[in-house]
Amino acid sequence: MTPFSAIAFFPELVLLAGALGIFVVMLGESQGKAARAGAIFVALVALGASIVALPQSTVLFDGAYRIDAFSQWLKIVISAGYLFVLLLSGNLPDIRKETKAEYYLFLTLSVLGLTMLVSSVEVLSLIIALELSSFPLYLMVAMRREREGQRVQMESAIKYVMFGVAANGIMFFGFSYLFGLTGSTHLPEMFVKLAPIATTPLAIVALTMAFAGFYYKLAIFPFHFWTPDVYQGASNETAGFIATLPKVGAVAVLVRLVSLATPENHAIATLLSGLAILSMCYGNLIALVQKDFKRLLGFSGIAHAGYAVVGFTAMNTAGYTAALYYIVGYMLMVTACFVVICKVSKDGTNVEIDELAGLHRRSPLLALTLVVAVFGLAGIPPFVGFIGKFGLLSAALAKGQLALVIITVINSAIAIYYYLQVVRKAVFGEKGADAPAPEPLHLDWSAKILCVLLLVGIVWLGVAPAPIMDAIAASLAGINLPL
Amino acid sequence: MENSLFYLFSALTVGSALAVVLHKNTVNAAVCLLLSLLGVAGIFALLDALLLSVLLILVYAGAVVALFLFIVMLLKPQTEPKKAYKKASVVAGTMGAALLGLGLCSFVTRGQFSTAPAAEVFHAGLKDYGAMLFTTYLLPVQVVGFLLLIAMLGVIVLSKKFEGQEDAK
């Protein structure tokens, strides 16, 4: 047994201590501001801790918890995403002031669950970490303030819980088959024992069902039904969180799980391509007619999940690298869209696309953020969306998935229409020359910093992808081999 | 002897599980669920997992089903008149059943149950169980504490009535 290394476990310890700290703050009355300041501090320390713990490589808890390059860089991404969501959240206009502190506690615990998720290589730890990241989200959706005649947040929360429970049930069933086939709950051990029987029907069914819980997090086609309703019903900040970080976690775990199947597993590859195609077409076609910006992002999120799965169909390092790179880029772009939603929204209400009109005069920085993010999502160079999609397509093409590549490209073309519609509204959609000048939007310091960080991230990842892609590919080597 | 017991418990489990789904009266369905869980506990006991079978009876039969019954009786269920199934759900159900049948057939004909090494026989005594909880499963056990904290806080946050709830500021 390796000695317990506190430095390897540092990011988790920081988040744990932070959650307890926020719990103490929460005991006072209406401590929303203090809790936010505390959470931002925790996020900064967690980010620092993840960077300090980056070179670590060890296994903890009898092999149940694995600290390697793969998990460590993802922890940096997750801590950064946590910081982004906190900067985005402003003063949470749509959460009751009595429960704002609780909201930050739930947020921190959910992030803790995600950091544990990317390191767990033992099925029970994995499941508990997944639940830890999901439970707070169910509550955060339901915590939106009630308005006159509006209980939509409760409906969304119930949908989210029901779909989550059903998808998790299928996943547990799949894991129980995997355990029955291999006699182990450790993923590296499973990998060795599953390799000779990975193409038998039972193994394929087991893997397929085990993926279900992560399809649900990622909003892949048969598990996507919650997405638009939850985006619409949850408060803007909550939707911004649900749309970004859990998807990064889901892709990371899917990488571990899909690599359990042997490289030449046609059944799994076909299944993944089918799901990718269905998600893309469904998401993009329905997004075309959306009026609510959050619903539009919800449907486009389904389509983007489909793009990410295109990388998995290659079932090799190039494909996984592209999928991870894409989802990190997606996180940046969608966070940028949600900054705009949160700031344009009046008193925390949902934002129609028409409400974006004249944004470039109300706040040039916000308009620039929106335009860059939406161009990125549409896959226009030089932003990260383009290079990410390029990586996905070249990985799939190298495996001879020509049909899949063509369908993906067609879908990207469809998507450009509704993305440009958003830009058109924001930049050219003014009511006429004689209309009164729209009132300028005031951005606080946190929103400004966040906009600049996201802009730099989206452009930087789009212009200089090579070092990061190489680092991701290197971290994927031996992901299922014992340390 | 053991074989016949296994079949007895399996029949109990599957039969009462079917009854859970098919029974109109919710209270009866919950009681059938109890029977089904007892069957599963019996199978665990046959597999020498005595601790697990006792826990199953204590937690599920004792607490969870009692909670179900409590909620069901609070809600005063009315027996609804029998509704005809929609055409779409009949089609979907048939397709699902066909897929399941196909899957089962392929397990029987092409499945390779024997190639997989059997799981190590692990006589889950209380002592081994405790030892594992504090080594391999230390992290999940600790994290479950946080899950309970979240659940408690969630119940408070969602059920508490706040003053001036409807004010739109």
Features:
heterodimer; A: 483 residues; mainly alpha; two-stranded antiparallel ribbon; 20 helices; 2 strands; 1% strand; B: Four Helix Bundle (Hemerythrin (Met), subunit A)
Query: What's the order of the H and E elements of chain A?
Result: HHEEHHHHHHHHHHHHHHHHHH
Biggest sheet overview of chain B: none
Distance between the termini of chain A: 13 Å
In the CATH classification, which architecture of the domain at 1-77 in chain B applies?
Up-down Bundle
Oligomer: heterodimer
What's the shape of chain A? Answer: globular
The radius of gyration computed from the alpha-carbon positions of chain B, rounded to a whole number of angstroms, is 22 Å
Helix/strand/pairing category of chain A: mainly alpha
Strand runs of chain B, count: 0
Broad shape of chain B: extended
In the predicted model, the low-confidence regions of chain A spanning at least 5 consecutive residues are none
Can you put this structure into words, describing what you see?
The complex is a heterodimer of chains A (483) and B (169). Chain A is an all-alpha fold. Chain A has one domain (3-143, 151-475). Chain A has helices at residues 10-26, 32-52, 69-88, 100-119, 123-142, 152-182, 187-194, 201-218, 226-233, 236-242, 245-258, 266-287, 293-313, 317-344, 359-362, 364-378, 384-398, 402-428, 445-463, 466-476; strands at residues 58-60, 65-67. Chain A has a two-stranded antiparallel ribbon with strand order 1-2. In chain A, helix 2 (32-52) runs parallel beside helix 4, helix 3 runs antiparallel to helix 11 (245-258) and helix 9 (226-233) packs antiparallel against helix 10 (236-242). The model of chain A has no long low-confidence stretch (mean pLDDT 86). Chain B has helices at 2-22, 26-46, 50-75, 87-110, 126-133, 138-159. By secondary structure, chain B is mainly alpha-helical. Chain B is extended. Chain B has 6 helices and no strands. Among the domains of chain B are: 1-77, NADH-ubiquinone/plastoquinone oxidoreductase chain 6, subunit NuoJ (Four Helix Bundle (Hemerythrin (Met), subunit A)); 125-158. In chain B, helix 1 (2-22) packs antiparallel against helix 2 (26-46) and helix 2 (26-46) runs antiparallel to helix 3 (50-75). The chains are: A mainly alpha (483), B mainly alpha (169).
